[in-house]
Structures are given as structure tokens and as C-alpha cells.
Design brief:
This protein is an alpha+beta fold and about 600 residues long. It contains 13 helices and 24 strands. The N terminus and C terminus are likely disordered. Bound molecules: 2-acetamido-2-deoxy-beta-D-glucopyranose. InterPro entries: ConA-like_dom_sf, Kinase-like_dom_sf, L-type_Lectin-RKs, Legume_lectin_dom, Prot_kinase_dom, Protein_kinase_ATP_BS, Ser/Thr_kinase_AS.
């Protein structure tokens, strides 16, 4: 249906949709309301492209397509559309300009109720555009229109939509299938869209329920819709087959269900074909490339790990972990956007963090970029906040297992972002720590971890303690077989001159009280006895001055330390692959854990 667009163009529409997944579990891929310059979407592709775009024209300004997607599968440029069940506004691209988990505001509150798009139940949607805002509202059929829209997005659509534009819907299926129904629709370019007579609308046919008896008009409508659906399906199957044939990525079944999987093609393009000049870090069996995703223009860091022995079993477990870790969100963590597997290469995609690692800022600073005390203290607080989130604030306990300066990245605002969760394992809250191989980096491994291989939140705290001393002193945790940072700081402390360990690059702008606090806290955290180490929550309180750091009187307990260090250095060398110490990784799993067949 063509609609005429004057200079101050506006529209309002409401419709009732229902998405019924195929009997075998979750369906796909969703439907979209569209404004488009033509009734045809030439070359459009199914699945995530929803029958609107294809990989070639996706993102092109010449599309002149505005769409509101009701998406039931996450996966297209996975990082962007993070929630499978979401509503988004798309302009010329499958990458939503804005997207929200499907939900509605409960009237007169700020509370939201989630709405499962593919429940098979009828959902009413409103899309309103007044020349300044696009508002999208959804709710179940049995309640009144919420007064607050789910999405209220300020935009002038005039530059994007052509003078004559068609209004309609597109839906797609693929490996996953659903039936997508529009059960009623009204549209107006002039004021509010006419109210739908809800009682006159059909139900969406469902497999289980017996069909209620419809009158002839409704049967006609369903028949028409079914025909359209069948036709669409036919076309889509052709697309799918076509795609299958030309696709170079042969995916295994399990890979298709992973929302965080990226296309190899996109990563190849993003990194200019994994060009040497794009490398920003190397370590172990991995190289980290800077990339710009062709579809969205976002900067990412792509870690490419070349496996020597690949094990699909291990990879599956690993991917399950990524799917989980991909949901971690905190301002002091590097977000793992997704992954991709290509033959023996495993690729991990992270946020690109411009200032590199804390390690390089401490030990290899560029001219004029020596960290001052304000910055260091802020970085310390950031790392603590990130670890607190991993240990206590997320739904599972995440033990990082490789806290060290090269795994702390510094963003444009000089805030710390903790990366490299590859060594992390997930534990359910309250269960015992599992015994696993010792992983970690020399100098940061807690004595009990070296002894019994039990990584815990407390061994993370140990590593954090060492990191604190490192940040203040500007010295590496282990410099040679005879220099151990923790011992060295204790020595100065026992002489009553702990401030002498301060980095000589730090100038007089230091806040002595804070420096002292951090040093003593570092010693507390890296205490050989786990029970003496504080929790991350406590640590954050100490750093904020909310609680007083108790003094440790009993430094004697450190006496056995020489034996201990010697012992765990031995443990390390028996795991010869665990030598990521010098790596300047930008996050991601270390090759170690891959090679162990995780
Ligand atoms: C969109 O929502 C905002 C915020 O609720 C409201 O102020 C505005 O009037 C709405 N615009 C339209 C076109 O409905």
C-alpha cells in the first residue's frame, strides 16, 4: 500500500501479531513491519535477514528501508542484538539502531513485564511516528495499551524514507521455523490509526489447541494468510538452499544454535584478511587483531587462536561457556561479543579497548603516558569492581583465574576493563570448587592453588593483591628467580618504610594515605593463608574508605614463603604451556585451555 510522504510526514499503525513456533522447540526468525520503496525486496535472504536485506545490501543507505523487527532469534551480528526475544528499529540494515527485550511497561510504574514474542499468543503492537519520535509499544491482547512505549526513539525519518513508500510486513524462517501471523492491522498517515475491533480478530491456529469455529470471512483470511505463508516459505527455502550451496562456512548443527557466533566472512573483512599490520598483540598461540566490522562499523578486537589439536568435544564445552560469559555485563569488564570457528582457528571477538593493557602502560609507557596516582587508584577501584561483579554479583560465581596486568585493559577514559575470561570456569553458587589443572600466570598464583589446583575466588584475590603491589611499585611480580614482589614489599614494610617501594615514576602528586592503603591491602590480599584474605566486597569497602583495614601483626606466617614459591614455580614449569606472562593478550582464552581439549 503506497503512502504519500509530505515534508512533515508522520504515521501511526497498530496490528495484532502472533508467532507460533514449530513443534520442535524454539522457532525463528521473526517478523518486521516495513516501509520500503518497492513491494519487492530484491535478493533478500531469509533467517536473520528477515526477507528484507541480504549480506550485500545490508547497511546500504540506498535501501531506503525502515523496519521495526519483532525478532525471536538473536544472532545477526550477535553482539548488537543480544536478546533473542527483542523488538528493534532498523534503518537500512539488520543491525538495529535501537533494540529492547520484548516487554511492556506496567501502567503508572517503571516496572516492565516481559513478553515472549513466540508464545503463540496474540500481541498487539503500535508504531507511532510524529516527525520527531518513533514510538513502539507492545502488550498482550487482553490489556489496554500501556501509556509508556517500549521504545521511544528520537529520529527524523524523512532522510531515510522515499517520497512514495510501501507499507507492509516481512517474515522469515530458516533452520528454525515459526508461523508468523498478522491477525489485524490498521494504518494511518493522518492522525492515530483506527482502533482495531479486538473481538472480531481470529486466534492464531495452534497445533495443540482445537481450532475454534470461525466465520467464513475469517476462514478466508486464514486461508489467504496461509497461502502467503506457504509462498513465503517456498521462497525462503529456495534462499536457504541457495545460501547453503554458496556458503563456504560449513556449520555443524550445534553451531547454529549459538547466538554469539560470528560469520568468518565478516571477521575476515574486518581485519583486512588478518593482515599483519592489524595485529595489536601476540601471545602464546594467539594473535589479536584490530578490526572494524563491515556491517556496523564498530571497532572490535579479534583474537585468533590456532589450535594444534582440535577437539570438537572440547570446543563445544568451550562454546557453551562463551554463550554464558557473553551475558556478563559490567563497565569494568571487556565484553566478549562472540566467537567463530574456522577449521583449526578459533576466533574470539571482543570490544576494542583503545589504550591497550595496564601491563604496557606500567612497563612500556609511551612518551607522556606514565600513569599518575589518580589514574592508578581509579584503575585499582575499577578492577576491584569488575572482580566483585564476577565473584558475587552475577548469577553464577565466575572465578577469573588469570588476574594480571596484561589482562587489564584501559579504555579511552582511563578506566580499567578486566578481560580474558578464558581460564574462568563457572561454578554454581554454593557448590564446592572443582579440582582442575593449575592455570594462571607465574607470580600471581596463590600457594594453595599451586598445591591442590583449587582455583577459587580467594585465589583471584591473591592475584589481585599481587597486582595492587605491581601497580604501586611499578615492578613485575617475578623478575628473576630471586625477586618476588610480595616478599620485597614485606621486607620494606617490616623496616617501617613501606612507602619506599613506590614507583619512582610516580611524582609528588601521590596521596600518601591512599598509597599506603593500597600497599597494605595488597599484602592482605596476597597473604599465603586464604582465610586471612578479604573478600572482594570487603576490598571495595576498604578502597572506598567505608571500612578500616585491620592490621596484620603476624607476618611470621609468611616465613615459609621461599619454599612455597619454589614449589609453585615447579608446578608451573611442569605445565610448560602456561607461560602467558609476557603475552600482551587483549582478552580471550589462552591457548593453554584449548589445547587441553576444553
Ligand atoms: C512517544 O513517547 C513519548 C514518551 O512517552 C511521548 O512524549 C510522545 O508524545 C510519543 N510520541 C508519539 C508520536 O506517540
Amino acid at each position: 500500500m503506497p503512502g504519500d510522504k509530505s515534508s512533515s510526514f508522520s504515521f501511526s499503525t497498530t496490528f495484532v501479531l502472533a508467532i507460533v513456533p514449530s513443534s520442535s522447540g524454539r522457532g525463528g526468525y521473526g517478523l518486521a513491519f516495513t516501509l520500503s520503496p518497492s513491494k519487492q525486496f530484491h535478493g533478500a535472504v531469509a533467517e536473520h535477514y528477515m526477507g528484507i536485506f541480504n549480506p550485500e545490501n545490508d547497511g546500504s543507505p540506498s535501501n531506503h528501508i525502515f523496519a521495526v523487527e519483532f525478532d525471536t532469534v538473536n544472532g545477526h551480528n550477535e553482539g548488537a542484538d543480544s536478546d533473542g526475544n527483542h523488538v528493534g528499529i532498523n534503518i537500512n540494515s539488520m543491525d538495529s539502531t535501537v533494540s529492547r527485550p520484548a516487554a511492556y511497561f506496567i501502567d503508572n510504574t517503571e516496572e516492565m513485564e516481559e513478553l515472549v514474542l513466540e508464545s503463540g499468543d496474540r500481541i498487539q503492537a503500535w508504531i507511532e511516528y510524529d516527525g520527531n519520535f518513533v514510538n513502539v509499544t507492545i502488550c498482550p491482547l487482553n490489556i489496554n495499551k500501556p501509556s509508556k512505549p517500549l521504545i521511544s526513539y528520537p529520529i527524523d525519518l524523512a532522510p531515510f524514507v522515499q517520497n512514495t513508500t510501501y507499507v507492509g510486513f516481512s517474515a522469515s524462517t530458516g533452520v528454525k521455523t515459526s508461523s508468523h501471523f498478522i491477525l489485524g492491522w490498521s494504518f494511518s498517515t493522518n492522525g492515530t490509526a483506527p482502533v482495531l475491533d479486538i473481538s472480531a480478530l481470529p486466534m492464531a491456529p495452534s497445533k495443540e489447541k482445537n481450532r475454534p469455529s470461525y466465520d467464513h470471512r475469517v476462514i478466508g483470511l486464514i486461508a489467504a494468510l496461509s497461502t502467503v505463508t506457504v509462498l513465503l516459505l517456498g521462497i525462503l527455502i529456495c534462499f536457504t538452499l541457495y545460501k547453503r550451496n554458496v556458503k563456504s562456512e560449513n556449520l555443524e548443527d550445534w553451531e547454529l544454535d549459538c547466538p554469539h557466533r560470528f560469520r568468518y566472512k565478516d571477521l575476515h573483512a574486518a581485519t583486512k584478511g588478518f593482515k599483519q599490520s592489524e595485529i595489536i598483540g601476540v601471545g602464546g598461540f594467539a594473535a589479536v587483531y584490530k578490526g572494524v566490522l563491515p556491517t556496523t562499523g564498530t571497532e572490535v578486537a579479534v583474537k585468533k587462536i590456532t589450535q594444534t589439536q582440535s577437539s570438537i568435544q572440547g570446543l563445544r564445552e568451550f562454546v557453551a561457556e562463551i554463550e554464558s560469559l557473553g551475558r556478563l555485563r559490567h563497565k569494568n569488564l571487556v565484553y566478549l561479543q562472540g566467537w567463530c570457528k574456522k577449521k583449526n582457528d578459533l576466533l574470539l571477538i571482543y570490544d576494542y579497548i583503545p589504550n591497550g593493557s595496564l601491563y604496557s602502560l606500567l612497563f612500556d609507557p609511551k612518551q607522556g603516558s606514565v600513569l599518575n596516582w589518580r589514574q592508578r587508584f581509579n584503575i585499582i577501584k575499577g578492577i576491584a569492581a569488575g572482580l566483585l561483579y564476577l565473584h558475587e554479583e552475577w548469577e553464577l560465581v565466575v572465578v577469573h583465574r588469570d588476574v594480571k596486568s596484561s589482562n587489564v585493559l584501559i579504555d579511552a577514559d582511563m578506566n580499567a576493563r578486566l578481560g580474558d575470561f578464558g581460564l574462568a570456569r563457572l561454578y554454581d553458587h554454593g557448590t564446592d570448587w572443582h579440582t582442575t589443572n593449575v592455570v594462571g600466570t607465574i607470580g600471581y598464583i596463590a600457594p594453595e592453588l599451586a598445591r591442590n589446583g583449587q582455583a577459587s575466588t580467594s585465589s583471584d584475590v591473591f592475584a589481585f593483591g599481587v597486582l595492587l603491589l605491581e601497580i604501586v611499585s611499578g615492578r613485575k611480580p617475578v623478575d628473576s628467580r630471586n625477586f618476588f614482589l610480595v616478599d620485597w614489599v614485606i621486607e620494606w614494610h617490616q623496616k617501617g618504610r613501606i612507602l619506599d617501594v613506590m614507583d619512582t615514576k610516580l611524582n609528588s602528586s601521590c596521596v600518601v594515605e591512599e598509597v599506603k592503603l593500597v600497599l597494605l591491602l595488597g599484602l592482605h590480599c596476597s597473604h599465603p593463608k586464604p582465610e586471612i584474605r578479604p573478600s572482594m566486597r570487603r576490598i571495595v569497602r576498604y578502597l572506598n574508605g567505608d571500612e578500616h583495614l585491620p592490621s596484620i601483626d603476624n607476618w611470621d606466617s609468611f616465613d615459609s614463603r621461599d619454599g612455597m614459591y619454589a614449589m609453585f614455580l615447579e608446578t608451573i614449569s611442569s605445565h610448560s604451556t602456561t607461560k602467558s606472562y609476557r603475552s600482551s593478550s587483549t582478552g580471550g582464552i589462552s591457548s593453554t585451555s584449548m589445547n587441553r581439549g576444553r
